[in-house]
Structures are given as structure tokens and as C-alpha cells.
Specification:
The complex is a heterodimer of chains A (403) and B (407). Chain A has 403 residues and is α+β, with helices and mostly antiparallel strands. Helices cover 34% and strands 26% of the residues of chain A. In chain B, the strands form 2 sheets. Chain B has an 8-stranded mixed sheet, with helices on both faces. Classes of the chains: A alpha+beta (403), B alpha/beta (407).
Chain lengths: 403, 407
């Protein structure tokens, strides 16, 4: 079977090269055009069904001959935030940090189609839009299209950079705001005798102290706290108070609880300003307003949950086995820097999820993209092996062409 | 493409995973008009896909990237119709393993396609390729009748005492684990040709056919026109030693190997199917012809040859026993036809089974069907070049006459 897949990969190489060039040349800032490029390729490669939902998720299906559980292959498409787009979507700067994931996902579907190997369930290849810290695309995909079209899901493979290893999780990431309100006079807090800018420093300093003592997970490493932005919104007519906000980008591990993180931030801020009689402190997850090129408007929390799937799960073992038995020197691992749609598929929905792809996390958005692109045939082959091991039918005793 | 002629041109299609063999046969005269093979379909090796097309005395090579069997067929049909000006009346597809869904040749319609789809996992590499081409023809050339002829159908008559494995019935039943048998089209062709050659009625004959190919090989016991045993099993791995397949062996060795080497099922299968047999024993080549050439000077080659022959003899003796002496022994396919040394060694000292070879006739065999048995042999020993495509065309022509397709 693996020889058949390998020979089919060789047959696809020319098309893969041409498509890779097209993807690299097309600006993903024009989401509609980019999506059209991907969907046209899926159709050309004979996917049985190609569709795009309102959130901009592009979905290509290779039908299984049975219905014993689908395998979902997910790659992501970074889109610019509302602000970055200067409120004119889809123009403005867009980012596509991992083109190899999109290309390998699509060509893994083509590989299975061309191999003609029967699948016990559908193979659903999804290209999912996302914003930094905001996984609106995957939520919409599972809550709508997949909920209605796919009865049972056997597992999810994230086409993300793993250096051909099988990754089983990563830290969570959330963005939250600490809002401090108090009565000032000419932007000065009376009790401190400093202006509002000076008033922020003690909290910033306290948060930085906290950031040096973050908890650690043995697989994922330390949590992380960064102050992303500080905003002073000035005097508010409605209540006569001044307000400033500190926006925190927080990576966290499975042992931490999101509500506890917000409560802890609130208590730190309250402690800093406890001597201010009229100061109130609140914390909340940041929200992102999203408008897709399909016209859908969503307001979504900026939150990716942490996850680690046990390596003894059959889906993980089978996926790794399919690679190591066929020449890959793969092992289990975890992403240290990035977040993925596994935050929703595994941490929220509990669907077995693994990651596999060419290149490392450091390659994402870096100048080494061409190097990663050159490894695409192996990435497609590896994905094909994982797909076949999980939803393919055994061909034992039948691997010779001639009977 | 249909015509009202009494003669019918049947295009026989035989798919490999990346190849398509074809033969245009005029029935009922069984005249091969055109033949050829498309290779390297959907794969890229050092060269692009190539179609080698034989028509009359001419050979034509067409090199073109072809993404799959459907595309190759279109190209082949273009050659047949435009270059040769030939028409055809039906497609005849060789289909490997229909399981219990089909026991005889079937005309393809929507219902047959639905049932064929259910057979895909039975031979997960071979069946989908054929199914896909049948489906392609059904959609693209809907006006041309097409038929599927099944490789395993001939063995449907093997009785339970020979097809059942001694496994727990519940497990065997759940997964359909039983001997299926293969090369049915070839075995049947050999049976028909042998009876025709000897002017015997097949319903009275007990026949052993040795289909000895450079790839796969099997032995079949035939009684009264029906297969009653075949050396291949649930898959083609069982039975004779083949070029890279081990054939019969103790299943315990597989578990031992898997446990000691930490092999996965796929790795173990790869060893048994791709690295064993003649290749495993001889290591320099998987081709028995190389073994024969070197066995005078190379001990490994000699051992490999002896093992190969002994395995065939084991089956010939076993089948002679269950048939209570065979009336006819047939050697067919490349090794069975081209290698007199193989036939000689298999028939050596087999007098107790009624098999006595005439060594001179055996050495002198050159082509066609010949009787190479000694006059005092109870069993007639024949060499019959295999022609599965003719057998497929016969089956289809019979079906066409029966249901009036294309007439």
C-alpha cells in the first residue's frame, strides 16, 4: 500500500509544484480570490464535493465507500484582524504563515483519490480561517457544516508544522483586558499625585513580576504573560471617571483555569490600587469582531484552550505507527509556540486530534518557506499514510500488482 | 460504436494498479485484432506514461502523461477507432474479487455497480481500479454494453471442507475468512482448451492445472468442469512459492517475527509478500528463470529451485489424491510454458499418481498446445499457453448472445 501511495505521489509532483507556485504568488489578503484558487484546485483534483461556508471555511470531501467515521484534515488560513484591515475587508495586509499546511492537506486528499484505495469513512479536507488568538472559523465549521453533514468523526489531523513528528498538543492562549476606572482631576489621581500614565506603571510592574514566575507543564513548558498594549481612554462623560486598560496576551497550560487567570489578574490590579478610594477594577476576555468575505459577522472571544492528548490513544499510536513503519523518523511532540484548531477539536469537543506537517514552528512566517515547500511531497505522503491507517481498509496479502 | 454484425468485437480490459492491458477480440472466431498495454498510469517514473499498441504487424508507441485508467482508455479507444478504423461492441472487464456478490459474469447496470462497490475492500488495491474504470465506461460510453468477468467466480464450487479455515466460526464468519482461490479465468481456460484438444467432455474429466507465472502461481483441482480446490487462499499469499511471496508456512513464524523485530502487520506483510519466495531464497533475483540458469553452480539457486518444485509437487500429489488420479495435468502461464526443466522436475517420479512425462516431447515443446506425456502415462500432460483475454471474451460473447446485447 505504501508503495502505491509513493508512486501516486510521484505522479502528483508536477501538479503539486505548479499549485505551490500559485499559492505562493496569490495574496491571501484577497480572501475571496485565495479561496477560489483553493476550491478550483480541489475540483480539478476530483474531490467529490467542494464547498465554502459563510465563515469562509473551504471544505473538500473525498467520499468513503462506507460511513464508519470521517477523518478531518485541517489547515489554517490566517486572515487580517478588523483593525489591521482598516475596516475594509478584504483589502489590507493578510498573512499566510503556513502555506505548506494548506497545500499538503489538499494534496493528501488528491493522493487518496488518485490511489483509489477505499476508505471506510469520508476524508474531509478543511481550510479554516482564523485570527490571531481567535478561532471563529473552526467553531463555525463544527457547529454548522460538519454537524449537519458528518455523522461521526474518527479523528482530526492538523496540517501544521511538526517537522514530520506527530504532535499532541500545545499551550492555550488568551487575550484579556484589565480595566481600571477611577475619579481623577485633570487626569491626575489625587492620592498619588501622578498622572494617569504614571498610575499605570505599578500595575505593569506587578504584571511583569508575575510573568517571571509562571507555572510549568512538563510537556509544554512555562506559561507566559506579555503586556500587549496599554490604552488610556480618558475622561468618560457618562460616569465622570477616567479609564485605562492593559491588554494582556497570556499563554497558559492545562493545569491553569481561564477564570482563575482572570480572577488573579483582577486581584493583582485591585491590590495595586487598593488605596485609591474610588477605583474599580475589572477583567474580561478580549473580543474580536470578525466579518468574513462571505458577509458573516461574528463577535468571538480571543481564546485558544490548551490541550495535550495522551500518547497511548489508538488514534495517536496508529498515526505515529503509520509513519515510523514507512520510513519516517517521527516521534510524539508538542508545539511550544503556536496554537492550533486542536484547542477546539480536542480541548472543547474531545475529538482525537494529532498534528503532522513539514517544517518547524520557527519556519512559520519566516523566510524559510521555500525550504518547507520543497518538503511537501513527504508531507503529503505522511498525511496519506496517517489517513490510510485510520480510515483506509487493510490490503494485507494484496500488495502485489500481479496476482 | 455498436453494430448489427453477427461477429462481435469485444474489447477486453485488464487493469493493474498502474497499467491497463487491452485486447480487441473478434468473436466467435476468437481472432485477436488489436492488443496493447498502457503503463505508468498516474505515476511518474523516469518516463511518462506509455501505450504500446500492436495492430496487424505494426507496433506503435504513444508517450503521453496519463493521470489514470480512464484517461488511458480514452487514448486507447482513439487509437483503435482513428488509427485502425475498428469498431467494438462491448467492454469486457476482468474483475479480481467479487466476494459473494457475483458468482458469474454480469452485465453492468446501476444495480451491478452498487454491488460491485461493496466488493472494494475485498481486494483493496485491485478492485477499486477495476471498479473505477467500469464506472467510467458506464458514464462515458453508456450506449456500449459492458460486462465484468470475475477471477474468483470459477472457484465458487470449492466445497466447504476445502475452503474452510480451522478458525473459530464466529470470527471467520464475521470477516469472511475462507479460501477464495484465484487465477480462475486462467484455470477455466486451461480446462476448456485441454478438453477441446483431447476431444473430451469436461463433465467427465478430472484435471489439475498448474498456473506457473513469473509473478503469481497456483494449482487448481477440477472435477467435472468445476473447481474443487485451489492453492491460493483468502489472499494470493497462500500456496506455492512465488517470485516474492512465501506461500504456505507456519503462521506462528509471523507472530514470532513480529514480536522479535517489533514489526507492524504492514511490515510483516511486506516481508511475506514482497521479500520472500524466490527473492528471499535466492536474493539475486526473484525470477525463477535466473535461478534455473544458475542452479548448476550456485547452491542457493539449487535450493530455491528444489523448494519451488517440491511445493508444486505437494499440491499435484494432494490434488491427485482428492481426484483419485487426474485425467489431465496442464502446465500454463510463462514458467509453465517456457521452462521444460520446471515441468520435468515436477513430474519426476510421479508414476504412483499416474503422471509420466515424455522427456523428449517435454524438451522439444515450442509453441501452442501439446501433449508431452509418455504413452504409458495414465494422466495426459499438456502444455497450454494461457490466454485469459480469450476466456473473458468467450464469457462475454456467451452473455451477449443470451441477452441479445448489441445484436
Amino acid at each position: 500500500m505504501h508503495r502505491l501511495l509513493k508512486s501516486r505521489i510521484r505522479g502528483l509532483n508536477g501538479e503539486l509544484d505548479v499549485f505551490s507556485k500559485k499559492v505562493c504568488d496569490c495574496s491571501p489578503a484577497d480572501a475571496e480570490r485565495f479561496s477560489r484558487l483553493l476550491s478550483e484546485e480541489m475540483e480539478r483534483l476530483d474531490f467529490d464535493r467542494v464547498t465554502c461556508d459563510a465563515a469562509g471555511n473551504l471544505i473538500g470531501t473525498v467520499k468513503g465507500y462506507q460511513d464508519k467515521g470521517a477523518l478531518i484534515v485541517i489547515s489554517h488560513l490566517d486572515i487580517p484582524s478588523w483593525e489591521d484591515r482598516k475596516k475594509e475587508f478584504p483589502s489590507g495586509e493578510g498573512m499566510l504563515k503556513f502555506k505548506a499546511g494548506i497545500i499538503s492537506g489538499i494534496y493528501a486528499g488528491a493522493l487518496m483519490k488518485r490511489s483509489l484505495l477505499p476508505l471506510s469513512g469520508d476524508l474531509v479536507v478543511c481550510c479554516v480561517p482564523r485570527l490571531e488568538c481567535c478561532d471563529f472559523g473552526i467553531r463555525y465549521l463544527f457547529d454548522n457544516y460538519l454537524k449537519s453533514e458528518v455523522k461521526k468523526i474518527k479523528g482530526v489531523v492538523l496540517a501544521e508544522p511538526t517537522d514530520f513528528n506527530v504532535f499532541l498538543g500545545h499551550k492555550g492562549r488568551m487575550e484579556y483586558e484589565i480595566t481600571v476606572r477611577g475619579k481623577s482631576c485633570g487626569s491626575f489621581f489625587d492620592s498619588r499625585g501622578v498622572n494617569m500614565l504614571g498610575t499605570m506603571f505599578p500595575l505593569i510592574s506587578e504584571l511583569e513580576k508575575v510573568s517571571r514566575q509562571m507555572p510549568r507543564n512538563s510537556y509544554l513548558g512555562h506559561s507566559n504573560l506579555r503586556i500587549k498594549d496599554v490604552r488610556y481612554s480618558g475622561y468618560r462623560q457618562e460616569d465622570g471617571l477616567d479609564e485605562f486598560r492593559i491588554i494582556v496576551d497570556r499563554e497558559f497550560i492545562p493545569e491553569e483555569n481561564q477564570n482563575d487567570i482572570l480572577d488573579r489578574a483582577k486581584s493583582i490590579a485591585a491590590d495595586v490600587y487598593r488605596k485609591e478610594p474610588e477605583v474599580t477594577v475589572s477583567t474580561a476576555l478580549s473580543m474580536e469582531k470578525v466579518k468574513t468575505y462571505k458577509g458573516l459577522e461574528i463577535v468571538s472571544e480571543k481564546d485558544f484552550k490548551p490541550w495535550t492528548m495522551d500518547s497511548y490513544r489508538p488514534f495517536a499510536l496508529d498515526s505515529l505507527g503509520s509513519l515510523t513503519e514507512n520510513g519516517f523518523k517521527s516521534s510524539f511532540g508538542y508545539w511550544k509556540k503556536i496554537t492550533t484548531e486542536g484547542s477546539y477539536t480536542y480541548a472543547k469537543l474531545g475529538i482525537p486530534t494529532v498534528g503532522f506537517g513539514a517544517g518547524s514552528e520557527d519556519d512559520m512566517g519566516s523566510g524559510s518557506e521555500q525550504l518547507v515547500i520543497s518538503k511537501l511531497p513527504d508531507a503529503v505522503y505522511g498525511l496519506g499514510l496517517i489517513i490510510h491507517r485510520n480510515i483506509g481498509l487493510p490490503s494485507f496479502g494484496w500488495s502485489s500488482d500481479e496476482i | 460504436m455498436k453494430s448489427d454484425r453477427k461477429e462481435k468485437n469485444i474489447l477486453v480490459l485488464n487493469c493493474g494498479s498502474s497499467s491497463l492491458k487491452y485486447k480487441l477480440i473478434r468473436m466467435p472466431g476468437e481472432k485477436t485484432l488489436i492488443r496493447g498495454e498502457a503503463q505508468r498510469l498516474g505515476i511518474k517514473t523516469e518516463g511518462v506514461s506509455v501505450i504500446t499498441h500492436f495492430s496487424g504487424g505494426n507496433v506503435k508507441k504513444v508517450e503521453n502523461p496519463l493521470s489514470g485508467h480512464g484517461e488511458a482508455l480514452c487514448e486507447v479507444l482513439g487509437l483503435i477507432e482513428q488509427e485502425d478504423g475498428m469498431k467494438f461492441d462491448a467492454f469486457a472487464h476482468r474483475y479480481v474479487h467479487p466476494g459473494d456478490y457475483f458468482t458469474r459474469t454480469v452485465k453492468i447496470d446501476e444495480s451491478a455497480l452498487d454491488d460491485l462497490k461493496k466488493t472494494l475492500p475485498l481486494a483493496a488495491i485491485h478492485n477499486p481500479v477495476s471498479y473505477n474504470l467500469i464506472d467510467f465506461c458506464h458514464r462515458r460510453y453508456s450506449s456500449v454494453p459492458q460486462f465484468a468477468v470475475f477471477d474468483t467466480a470459477f472457484h465458487k464450487t470449492i466445497p466447504p471442507e476445502y475452503y474452510t479455515y480451522a478458525l473459530p466460526r464466529k470470527i471467520a464468519g464475521k470477516y469472511g475468512l475462507r479460501k477464495v482461490g484465484f487465477h480462475g479465468i486462467s484455470h477455466r481456460y486451461s480446462m476448456e482448451e485441454a478438453c477441446r484438444f483431447l476431444r473430451k467432455n469436461k463433465s467427465s474429466q478430472k484435471i489439475i492445472v498448474c498456473h506457473l507465472g513469473t509473478g503469481g502461481s497456483s494449482v487448481c483441482a477440477i472435477k467435472e468442469g468445476k473447481s474443487i480446490n485451489n492453492s491460493m487462499g483468502f489472499t494470493p499469499l497462500e500456496g506455492l512459492i512465488m517470485n516474492t511471496r512465501c506461500g504456505d508456512m507456519d503462521a506462528g513464524t509471523v507472530f514470532y517475527l513480529m514480536s522479535r523485530e517489533n514489526f507492524s502487520p504492514e511490515e510483516a506483510e511486506n516481508i511475506l509478500n514482497k521479500k520472500s519466495g524466490i527473492l528471499g531464497l535466492f536474493s539475486r533475483s526473484s525470477d525463477l528463470r535466473d535461478v534455473i540458469r544458475l542452479m548448476g553452480t550456485d547452491n542457493k539457486a539449487k535450493t530455491a529451485f528444489d523448494m519451488y518444485v517440491n511445493r508444486v509437487r505437494t499440491y499435484v500429489v494432494f490434488y491427485s489424491m482428492i481426484l483419485r488420479k487426474a485425467d489431465i495435468l496442464v502446465f500454463t502461464d510463462s514458467l509453465g510454458v517456457e521452462e521444460p526443466e520446471v515441468r520435468r522436475a515436477i513430474c519426476e517420479k510421479m508414476e504412483f499418481t499416474g503422471i509420466v512425462l515424455d522427456k523428449k516431447k517435454n524438451s522439444a515443446y515450442s509453441r501452442g498446445i501439446e501433449d508431452i506425456s509418455s504413452p504409458d502415462s495414465e494422466t495426459r500432460i499438456l502444455v497450454i499457453p494461457s490466454d485469459e483475454e480469450i476466456m473473458i471474451a468467450r464469457e462475454v460473447h456467451k452473455e451477449m448472445k443470451k441477452n441479445g446485447s448489441g445484436s
